[in-house]
Amino acid sequence: MAQHLMSTSCSLKPSTNRKPCFKPNQFSTSYPAFVRTKTFGSPFKSLVLQGKRTQSHCTVHATVAPISDEAQTKPNSGSHHSTTEPSNPTRVMVIGGDGYCGWATALHLSNKNYEVAIVDSMVRRLFDHQLGLDSLTPISSIHDRIRRWKSLTGKTMELYNGDICDFEFLSETFNSFKPDAVVHFGEQRSAPYSMIDRSRAVFTQNNNVIGTLNVLFAIKEFGEACHLVKLGTMGEYGTPNIDIEEGFITITHNGRTDTLPFPKQASSFYHLSKVHDSNNIAFTCKAWGIRATDLNQGVVYGIKTNETEMHEELCNRFDYDGVFGTALNRFCVQAAVGHPLTVYGKGGQTRGYLDIRDTVQCVELAIANPAQPGEFRVFNQFTEQFSVNQLATLVTDAGKKLGLEVQTISVPNPRVEAEEHYYNAKHTKLIELGLKPHLLSDSLLDSLLNFSIKYKDRVDTKQIMPNVSWRKIGVKPKTVAA
Ligand SMILES: NC(=O)c1ccc[n+]([C@@H]2O[C@H](COP(=O)([O-])OP(=O)(O)OC[C@H]3O[C@@H](n4cnc5c(N)ncnc54)[C@H](O)[C@@H]3O)[C@@H](O)[C@H]2O)c1
Fold first, then answer.
1. Any atom of ligand 1 within 6 Å of the Cβ of 211
2. Rounded to the nearest whole angstrom, what is the distance from the C-alpha of residue 402 to the centroid of ligand 1?
3. For 126-149, what is each residue's pLDDT tens digit?
4. Which of 230, 233, 245, 240 shows the shortest CA–CA distance to 280?
5. Half-sphere exposure of 81 toward its Cβ, with a 13 Å CA cutoff?
6. Domain NAD-dependent epimerase/dehydratase spans what residues (predicted)?
7. Three-state SS string across 382-444, please?
8. CA 159 → CA 143, 169, 210, 349, distances in Å?
9. Does ligand 1 lie within 6 Å of residue 100's CB atom?
10. What is the pLDDT of residues 180-201, one digit of tens each?
11. Which of helix, strand or coil describes residue 184?
12. DSSP label at 461?
């Protein structure tokens, strides 16, 4: 299914100043004294072996050990104590917990005294290596991240390293960890990635739809009471010329009235995978009594959370490239390195946005207020909406204050989307549950820009322009010379 993952030819211009290929030990289990190793029949294992790597690799269930005697630090000694501890510690499995939203969320939940297990195949790190991309921020291995967290706070996070498309692996993780809630971030999440070529389109839909289907079967089989909190996207709705409701709309048609799922108009193979996920989840809530919350998240910006700030080894990833970078984060990096801000087409594209600190808050709120058995809830998870032109103006103004000369250019839109349209999406349900939004402010923009300036020497400017076209996608694997 994922042959392209081991292909040595990448579709985008590879960076010359970045690691040319992934480190042999990237996925190894090389923490000899401390790691409990469990081998599962994961397809990821065979992928790794197909890559002609010499060492033996396996999917591991690892408990990561202390780094040093810092680990003697007492449990709960982190500076960010919980104010809303669950009365009974709740076991939360964070699928995709090594990624941008997942890492911040895993730390936040652990800090709030939830028992956290991270499930991740590390495939995202592999995409970066293959496409010659890198996070603006240096990020530590998942093992170092978890060990550092333990050394700082005394809190342990379990690690299950494997692919959720492998049901045997997923069953083992469920049986071993026995989650009360599963937060599912573990998908291929880039629309441009899904539009590179046929094999990436197929991989995206396979990975996302089958992975989620496996999670649903695992809940049915091994944890009926377990609450699924699934990350969807506001992109599922598209840009209709009416207000977007939270999941459902009441329609009167030919004199009869019903409340129905809000129409979906996805605009990439990635977004379509999310729509299919939502349908599968809704169906299994009805058919099997699964309890689920579909969080239709807007575009996330920002880097710091209370927990990631505690140590540089806890630092989150920050994508700025044309494939994985999201709008505001990209603009801040572009401003920092003196690259014109890249507005696609007319720039009237309007979307919902939120701070990463609100992503972690929203997920916690969803877990603490679970859906009822059989209930399929949909929350629109964003706090403000902006057009691309508005974001460019905000970054230009903030840049001026820091002495940056920020230019904006319109580049041909590689996507197929409306560039001027009506957009008004509801987002009240998480506020009703207690979300206290961090709205985009001048000070946040200053800090994002300063952060981008701090790491500007790591920017590969060749990765900034978009080079995946919705119209030109073909069956031939895209390749570039190294
Ligand atoms: N970042 C955003 O702005 C944004 C916006 C809306 C929705 N979302 C959704 O939030 C979720 C997380 O996004 P992110 O930005 O953190 O993405 P990310 O790519 O940084 O993280 C995803 C993680 O999932 C893992 N993963 C992928 N497939 C897997 C599999 N089959 N088995 C195990 N692990 C797997 C990856 O290795 C990675 O660590 C995604 O579902 C995405 O669609 C993100």
1. yes
2. 33
3. 999 999 999 999 999 999 999 999
4. 230
5. 4
6. 92-380
7. CCEEEEHHHHHHHHHHHHHHCCCCCCEEEECCCCCCCCCCCCCECCCHHHHHCCCCCCCCHHH
8. 8, 13, 21, 39
9. yes
10. 999 999 999 999 999 999 999 9
11. strand
12. G
Residue linked to tokens 């990631």:
308
Residue whose CA is closest, atom 28 of ligand 1?
Answer: 187
The pLDDT value recorded for residue 77 is 33
Asked whether 364 lines ligand 1 (CB < 6 A), one says no
Which pair of tokens denotes residue 216?
Answer: 């649903």
> 187 alpha carbon to ligand 1 midpoint, in Å?
5
pLDDT digits (tens, 9 = 90+) for 295-314: 999 999 999 999 999 999 99
Query: Looking at this protein, which amino acid is placed at residue 437?
Result: P
| Total-model pTM | 0.87
pLDDT per residue as tens digits for the range 367-407:
999 999 999 999 999 999 999 999 999 999 999 999 999 99
Pairing of the two strands 291-297 and 376-381: parallel
Find out whether the beta carbon of 134 lies less than 6 Å from any atom of ligand 1.
no
Rounded to the nearest 10 degrees, the angle between the axes of helix 327-337 and helix 388-401 is: 40
The model's confidence at residue 480, banded by pLDDT at 50, 70 and 90, is low
C-beta separation of 1 from 188 below 8 A: no
**77 CA → ligand 1 middle, Å:** 30
Residue 248 is encoded by which pair of tokens? 């459902």
Packing angle of the helix pair 388-401, 442-454 (nearest 10 deg): 70
Pair 291, 373: CB distance under 8 Å? yes
Residue 36: per-residue pLDDT: 32
**Ligand 1 neighbourhood includes 297 CB (under 6 angstroms):** yes
- The answer to whether 464 and 330 have CB atoms below 8 angstroms apart is yes
Just list the catalytic residues: 233, 270, 274
Give the span between the Cα atoms of 266 and 415, in whole angstroms. 12
Rounded distance from Cα 205 to ligand 1 centre (Å): 13
In three-state secondary structure terms, 351 is strand
Tokens of 470: 């919705």
Cα of 370 vs its chain's centroid, Å: 21
Q: Please choose from 128, 187, 297 the residue to mutate so as to test ligand 1's pocket, defined by most ligand atoms within 8 A of CB.
A: 187
101 lines ligand 1 (CB under 6 A): yes
CB 67 within 8 A of CB 143: no
Average pLDDT over the chain, rounded to whole? Answer: 86
Nearest to 299 by CA among 379, 355, 243: 355
